[in-house]
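Board notes (copied after class):
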Amino acid sequence: MKLAVFSDIHSNIEALDCVLKKISLENVDGLICCGDIIGYGPNPNECVEKIKSIKNIKIVAGNHDKAAVGLFDINWFNDNAKAAILWTSSVLTKENKKFLGELPEKIQTENFTVVHGSPRESINEYLIKPSDMQDNLQFFETQICFIGHSHYPFVYTVENGITGLSTDITLQITSKSIINVGSVGQPRDGDNRACFLILEDNKITFHRVEYDIEKVQTKMREKFLPEPLITRLSYGK
Protein backbone atom coordinates (compact mmCIF):
# COMPACT_ATOMS: atom_id res chain seq x y z
CA MET A 1 0.00 0.00 0.00
CA LYS A 2 1.22 3.48 -0.88
CA LEU A 3 0.18 6.37 1.39
CA ALA A 4 0.77 10.11 1.51
CA VAL A 5 1.17 11.50 5.04
CA PHE A 6 1.10 15.18 6.03
CA SER A 7 0.29 17.44 8.97
CA ASP A 8 -0.10 21.01 10.22
CA ILE A 9 -1.76 22.70 7.27
CA HIS A 10 -2.66 25.67 9.45
CA SER A 11 -5.19 27.34 7.16
CA ASN A 12 -2.64 27.70 4.36
CA ILE A 13 -4.62 26.77 1.26
CA GLU A 14 -1.81 27.70 -1.15
CA ALA A 15 0.56 25.23 0.50
CA LEU A 16 -2.14 22.56 0.76
CA ASP A 17 -3.09 22.84 -2.90
CA CYS A 18 0.54 22.49 -4.00
CA VAL A 19 1.05 19.46 -1.77
CA LEU A 20 -2.11 17.78 -3.01
CA LYS A 21 -1.10 18.47 -6.60
CA LYS A 22 2.21 16.70 -6.07
CA ILE A 23 0.52 13.84 -4.21
CA SER A 24 -1.83 13.40 -7.17
CA LEU A 25 1.20 12.43 -9.26
CA GLU A 26 2.18 9.66 -6.83
CA ASN A 27 -0.78 7.30 -7.42
CA VAL A 28 -1.33 6.72 -3.70
CA ASP A 29 -3.93 4.40 -2.20
CA GLY A 30 -4.82 6.78 0.62
CA LEU A 31 -3.86 9.87 2.60
CA ILE A 32 -3.21 10.55 6.28
CA CYS A 33 -3.40 13.91 8.05
CA CYS A 34 -1.87 14.23 11.52
CA GLY A 35 -3.97 17.23 12.54
CA ASP A 36 -4.02 21.02 12.75
CA ILE A 37 -5.92 21.69 9.58
CA ILE A 38 -6.56 25.20 10.86
CA GLY A 39 -4.87 27.90 12.97
CA TYR A 40 -2.35 30.65 12.13
CA GLY A 41 -3.28 31.12 8.46
CA PRO A 42 -5.97 33.05 6.53
CA ASN A 43 -8.09 30.29 4.95
CA PRO A 44 -9.47 27.94 7.61
CA ASN A 45 -12.78 27.15 5.92
CA GLU A 46 -11.16 26.56 2.55
CA CYS A 47 -8.65 24.13 4.08
CA VAL A 48 -11.33 22.21 5.97
CA GLU A 49 -13.50 21.99 2.88
CA LYS A 50 -10.57 20.76 0.81
CA ILE A 51 -9.72 18.05 3.34
CA LYS A 52 -13.37 17.03 3.60
CA SER A 53 -13.50 16.54 -0.17
CA ILE A 54 -10.64 14.01 -0.24
CA LYS A 55 -11.58 10.35 -0.52
CA ASN A 56 -9.65 7.67 1.36
CA ILE A 57 -8.18 10.02 3.97
CA LYS A 58 -7.64 9.34 7.68
CA ILE A 59 -7.50 12.43 9.92
CA VAL A 60 -6.76 13.03 13.59
CA ALA A 61 -7.36 16.21 15.56
CA GLY A 62 -4.63 18.67 16.43
CA ASN A 63 -4.52 21.12 19.31
CA HIS A 64 -5.51 24.05 17.06
CA ASP A 65 -8.41 22.06 15.63
CA LYS A 66 -9.68 21.37 19.14
CA ALA A 67 -9.06 24.89 20.45
CA ALA A 68 -10.92 26.57 17.60
CA VAL A 69 -14.09 24.68 18.52
CA GLY A 70 -13.77 25.11 22.29
CA LEU A 71 -12.44 21.64 23.09
CA PHE A 72 -8.92 22.68 24.15
CA ASP A 73 -7.88 25.46 26.54
CA ILE A 74 -6.50 28.38 24.51
CA ASN A 75 -4.46 29.49 27.52
CA TRP A 76 -1.93 26.84 26.47
CA PHE A 77 -1.13 29.02 23.44
CA ASN A 78 1.18 32.02 23.20
CA ASP A 79 -0.37 35.41 22.45
CA ASN A 80 0.10 35.21 18.67
CA ALA A 81 -1.30 31.71 18.39
CA LYS A 82 -4.19 32.65 20.70
CA ALA A 83 -5.07 35.67 18.56
CA ALA A 84 -5.10 33.48 15.45
CA ILE A 85 -7.27 30.87 17.16
CA LEU A 86 -9.82 33.47 18.26
CA TRP A 87 -10.01 34.89 14.72
CA THR A 88 -10.23 31.40 13.22
CA SER A 89 -13.05 30.42 15.57
CA SER A 90 -14.97 33.57 14.62
CA VAL A 91 -14.92 32.77 10.88
CA LEU A 92 -15.32 28.98 10.85
CA THR A 93 -18.70 27.81 9.61
CA LYS A 94 -20.95 25.78 11.86
CA GLU A 95 -20.51 22.73 9.61
CA ASN A 96 -16.72 22.98 9.68
CA LYS A 97 -16.67 23.39 13.45
CA LYS A 98 -18.76 20.23 13.73
CA PHE A 99 -16.33 18.37 11.47
CA LEU A 100 -13.30 19.48 13.48
CA GLY A 101 -14.98 18.71 16.79
CA GLU A 102 -15.68 15.14 15.73
CA LEU A 103 -12.14 14.27 14.64
CA PRO A 104 -10.56 11.41 16.65
CA GLU A 105 -7.42 12.01 18.67
CA LYS A 106 -5.84 8.70 17.59
CA ILE A 107 -6.07 6.26 14.71
CA GLN A 108 -4.51 2.82 14.80
CA THR A 109 -4.38 0.33 11.97
CA GLU A 110 -2.56 -2.98 11.65
CA ASN A 111 0.53 -1.21 10.32
CA PHE A 112 0.67 2.26 11.85
CA THR A 113 -0.60 4.65 14.51
CA VAL A 114 -1.51 8.29 13.89
CA VAL A 115 -1.63 11.07 16.51
CA HIS A 116 -0.89 14.79 16.47
CA GLY A 117 1.43 15.40 19.41
CA SER A 118 2.80 12.13 20.75
CA PRO A 119 1.72 8.53 21.40
CA ARG A 120 1.68 9.30 25.13
CA GLU A 121 -0.30 12.55 24.90
CA SER A 122 -2.01 12.72 21.56
CA ILE A 123 -2.93 16.39 21.45
CA ASN A 124 -0.31 18.53 23.14
CA GLU A 125 3.03 16.84 23.91
CA TYR A 126 5.92 18.12 21.83
CA LEU A 127 8.53 15.48 21.06
CA ILE A 128 11.77 17.45 21.00
CA LYS A 129 14.21 15.56 23.23
CA PRO A 130 15.44 12.06 22.28
CA SER A 131 14.72 10.89 25.84
CA ASP A 132 11.03 11.77 25.41
CA MET A 133 10.97 10.01 22.05
CA GLN A 134 12.46 6.92 23.65
CA ASP A 135 9.87 7.01 26.45
CA ASN A 136 7.05 7.30 23.91
CA LEU A 137 7.97 4.11 22.07
CA GLN A 138 6.09 2.11 24.72
CA PHE A 139 2.82 3.97 24.07
CA PHE A 140 2.02 2.43 20.69
CA GLU A 141 1.96 -1.15 19.43
CA THR A 142 2.51 -0.74 15.69
CA GLN A 143 5.90 -0.44 14.02
CA ILE A 144 5.30 3.16 12.95
CA CYS A 145 3.68 6.10 14.71
CA PHE A 146 3.13 9.23 12.62
CA ILE A 147 3.03 12.58 14.40
CA GLY A 148 3.15 16.32 13.65
CA HIS A 149 2.81 19.26 16.06
CA SER A 150 6.41 20.53 16.23
CA HIS A 151 6.55 21.24 12.47
CA TYR A 152 9.99 19.63 12.41
CA PRO A 153 10.39 16.43 10.32
CA PHE A 154 12.36 13.62 11.88
CA VAL A 155 12.57 9.86 12.28
CA TYR A 156 13.31 8.33 15.69
CA THR A 157 14.24 4.64 15.84
CA VAL A 158 15.68 2.40 18.54
CA GLU A 159 18.84 1.68 16.54
CA ASN A 160 19.69 5.10 15.15
CA GLY A 161 18.15 7.59 17.55
CA ILE A 162 16.91 10.78 15.94
CA THR A 163 17.48 11.65 12.29
CA GLY A 164 16.61 15.23 11.45
CA LEU A 165 15.31 15.73 7.92
CA SER A 166 15.52 19.11 6.24
CA THR A 167 15.93 17.97 2.63
CA ASP A 168 14.36 15.34 0.40
CA ILE A 169 15.44 11.95 1.74
CA THR A 170 14.34 8.30 1.62
CA LEU A 171 14.65 5.88 4.55
CA GLN A 172 13.79 2.22 5.02
CA ILE A 173 11.93 1.64 8.29
CA THR A 174 13.14 -1.60 9.87
CA SER A 175 12.24 -1.14 13.54
CA LYS A 176 9.79 0.62 15.80
CA SER A 177 9.78 4.27 14.82
CA ILE A 178 8.23 7.64 15.57
CA ILE A 179 8.04 9.71 12.40
CA ASN A 180 7.28 13.42 12.44
CA VAL A 181 5.97 14.31 9.00
CA GLY A 182 6.74 18.04 9.26
CA SER A 183 4.33 20.80 8.29
CA VAL A 184 2.44 21.69 5.13
CA GLY A 185 1.51 25.24 6.04
CA GLN A 186 4.08 26.51 8.53
CA PRO A 187 7.45 24.68 8.38
CA ARG A 188 9.87 25.43 11.22
CA ASP A 189 12.98 23.45 10.31
CA GLY A 190 14.64 26.21 8.32
CA ASP A 191 13.14 25.13 5.00
CA ASN A 192 10.14 27.29 4.04
CA ARG A 193 8.77 24.75 1.53
CA ALA A 194 5.71 22.66 2.43
CA CYS A 195 6.56 19.17 3.69
CA PHE A 196 4.94 15.74 3.37
CA LEU A 197 6.03 12.12 2.98
CA ILE A 198 5.18 9.02 1.01
CA LEU A 199 5.07 5.61 2.71
CA GLU A 200 5.42 2.51 0.55
CA ASP A 201 6.53 -0.96 1.69
CA ASN A 202 7.96 0.50 4.94
CA LYS A 203 10.05 2.95 2.95
CA ILE A 204 9.41 6.64 3.57
CA THR A 205 10.33 9.46 1.21
CA PHE A 206 10.13 13.05 2.40
CA HIS A 207 9.14 15.67 -0.16
CA ARG A 208 9.34 19.47 -0.11
CA VAL A 209 7.10 21.63 -2.27
CA GLU A 210 7.34 25.32 -3.10
CA TYR A 211 4.23 27.48 -2.92
CA ASP A 212 3.30 31.19 -3.17
CA ILE A 213 4.34 32.38 0.29
CA GLU A 214 3.86 36.07 -0.50
CA LYS A 215 0.23 35.47 -1.49
CA VAL A 216 -0.46 33.84 1.87
CA GLN A 217 1.30 36.65 3.73
CA THR A 218 -0.76 39.29 1.91
CA LYS A 219 -3.99 37.56 2.90
CA MET A 220 -2.81 37.22 6.51
CA ARG A 221 -2.13 40.96 6.68
CA GLU A 222 -5.56 41.68 5.22
CA LYS A 223 -7.04 39.62 8.08
CA PHE A 224 -4.86 41.48 10.64
CA LEU A 225 -3.26 38.27 11.82
CA PRO A 226 -0.13 38.69 14.01
CA GLU A 227 2.93 39.83 12.07
CA PRO A 228 5.33 37.24 13.60
CA LEU A 229 3.14 34.47 12.18
CA ILE A 230 3.36 36.15 8.79
CA THR A 231 7.09 36.83 8.58
CA ARG A 232 8.16 33.40 9.80
CA LEU A 233 6.67 31.81 6.69
CA SER A 234 9.49 33.37 4.67
CA TYR A 235 12.18 31.67 6.72
CA GLY A 236 10.58 28.39 7.72
CA LYS A 237 11.39 29.06 11.35
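Comment from the instructor: Residues 79-91 form the longest helix (13 residues). Residues 76 and 82 are 8 Å apart (CA to CA).
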